[in-house]
Amino acid sequence: MRRIWPIVFSLLIPVAFSGGYLLATDSAWTACVLQVPEGPHGVPSVCADISSTGVATGLGFGIVGVVVWAVAWAVASFMSSRRGAS
């Protein structure tokens, strides 16, 4: 049970990075909507581009971060079990 806590807490690193990126995207979108006048269809296109690009990038960072996290812990677990066997 002691080994599970470092694994759980280290997962917070990519999740926090991705969440921070999504919060920054939301802040940029809000600032854009307040500063750029409305277009003919509601939200200005530049603001929609900020939102879609930022969300896609934030989610991409989150997915890549979790994959790297899983590979790193799998390698560490493999090396630890191999060291214990010899």
Report on this structure:
The mean pLDDT is 87. This protein is rod-shaped. The protein has 2 helices and no strands. It has helices at 4-35, 45-85. It has one domain (11-81). Helix 1 packs antiparallel against helix 2 (45-85). The chain is mostly helical and 86 residues long.
> Compute the gyration radius: what is it?
20 Å
Query: Main sheet, how many strands, which sense, barrel?
Result: none
Shape descriptor: rod-shaped
Secondary structure: number of strands: 0
Kindly estimate the percentage of residues that lie in beta strands according to DSSP: under 5%
**First-residue to last-residue Cα separation:** 23 Å
Class by alpha and beta content: mainly alpha
Helices and strands in order:
Elements: H1 4-35, H2 45-85
Helix pairs in contact: 1-2
Brief summary of the model shown:
The chain is mainly alpha-helical and 86 residues long. It has two helices and no strands.
Give me some keywords for this one.
86 residues; mainly alpha; 2 helices; 85% helix
